[in-house]
Amino acid sequence: MARWRRDWESVMRHYQPGRDELLAAGLAAAEKAHGRRPERVLDVGGGPGTTAEAVLRRWPDAHITVLDVDPVLLALTATVLPHVRTVRADLGTAQWLAPAGGPYDVVLALMTVHYLPEDRVRDWYAEARQLLRPGGLLLVGDVMRDAPSTAPPLADTGVDPWTAWWTMLAGEPAMAPLLRERATALAGLVCAEFAAPVDWHRETAWRAGFSDVTVLHRRADHALMAFRRRWTADERQRARRGHRHLLRRPSLPRTTPSGRVGGSGGLRRCRP
Ligand SMILES: C[S@@+](CC[C@H](N)C(=O)[O-])C[C@H]1O[C@@H](n2cnc3c(N)ncnc32)[C@H](O)[C@@H]1O
Predict the structure, then answer these.
(1) pLDDT per residue over 45-87, tens digit each?
(2) What is the β-pairing status of strands 104-110 and 63-68?
(3) Phi, psi of 59, deg, nearest 5
(4) Which UniProt keywords apply (predicted)?
(5) Which of 16, 82, 155, 170 has CA 20 to 30 A from 211's CA?
(6) DSSP class per residue in 213-267
(7) How far is the C-alpha of 15 from the C-alpha of 12, rounded, in Å?
(8) Ligand 1 atom with least separation from CA of 12
(9) Whose CA is nearest to atom 3 of ligand 1?
(10) Which among 50, 71, 67, 201 is positioned nearest to 138, based on CA atoms?
């Protein structure tokens, strides 16, 4: 298990340049936005829980939920992180909302939204908003191409790390039942390979009820954006009446300068 999850991180670093710095920037922003360590975190499309584990290293007392459609990846999460809640749900419709639970301080989606088609991503922002408490933070890290990529293509070494990882897993006889379950669960799911510029995400999230949009990290074609869930007038009024402390609103860190560094990014072939 440990080796598969370690190798998963190597694979993901290959496709998502600057991944560690990107996550660190997101978690630091969440601390700053809340003025304390967030307590409830949802990792959407959290895969084998390697991000959840990194979050727990920084926030050991956090309650984390990992939601994913893939039973194999969820099993890896559950085995290694038994205290993390795992939820199997498909983001393809709004039905993922009910099992996801909430409200959360932070909702995180790393390399996940590009699996969904544009219309679903639009709706997904509005749905993610429903899972956040007022003032909660949404962190989205994915391919966000502002212009046709000028970065050189990934070196063709003849090995696709994603396929190699799954082939390695399939070589383990104990995984056979889960892999069969996976084949059924993922039948009919198509990866949209959606990629939109930062401004598209900014506008879409604003329409969905978020404000204080910040680009926390950029590298090659990848960005991490933070969105704060806006308060409704009603929520603000209720908070004024009862809980003044809820109105305190620490600021988000300033946007980091954008830059094209290193090789090309992007999970070229996403295969849910
Ligand atoms: C490239 S992986 C990223 C995993 C994890 N966020 C990370 O960064 O290591 C994309 C994840 O999204 C999940 N996913 C893709 N389509 C999904 C869907 N329709 N519903 C739920 N999860 C989905 C996949 O199963 C996979 O775990």
Answers:
(1) 999 999 999 999 999 999 999 999 999 999 999 999 999 999 9
(2) unpaired
(3) -125, 75
(4) Methyltransferase, S-adenosyl-L-methionine, Transferase
(5) 16
(6) EEEEEEETTEEEEEEEEPPPHHHHHHHHHH-GGGG--PPPPPPPPP---SS--S-
(7) 5
(8) 9
(9) 111
(10) 201
Strands 210-219 and 85-88: unpaired
Give residue 228's identity as a one-letter amino acid code: R
Q: List the structure tokens of 29.
A: 């922003």
Token couple for 25: 């920037």
Compute the distance from residue 128 Cα to the ligand 1 centre, in Å: 15
C-alpha–C-alpha distance, residues 174 and 163, integer Å: 19
CB neighbours of 245 closer than 8 A, spacing ≥ 6?
A: none
Q: Look-up: residue for tokens 């990846």?
A: 73
Is 120's pLDDT higher than 60?
A: yes
Answer left, alpha or beta for residue 18, where phi above 0 means left and psi between -120 and 50 means alpha.
left
Asked if pLDDT for residue 93 goes beyond 70, the answer is yes
Give the pLDDT confidence score for residue 251 in this predicted structure.
47
Which of 51, 69, 114, 142, when mutated, tests ligand 1's pocket best, judged by the most ligand atoms within 8 Å of its CB? 69
- The number of the ligand 1 atom at minimal distance from the alpha carbon of 70 is 25
Q: How confident is the model at residue 160 (pLDDT cuts 50, 70, 90)?
A: confident
Nearest alpha carbon, ligand 1 atom 1: 111
Segment 10-37 mean pLDDT? 95
The whole-model pTM stands at 0.89
Q: Which residue has the higher pLDDT, 170 or 264?
A: 170
**Cβ of residue 110 lying under 6 Å from some atom of ligand 1:** yes
Q: Encoding tokens for residue 190? A: 């198509």
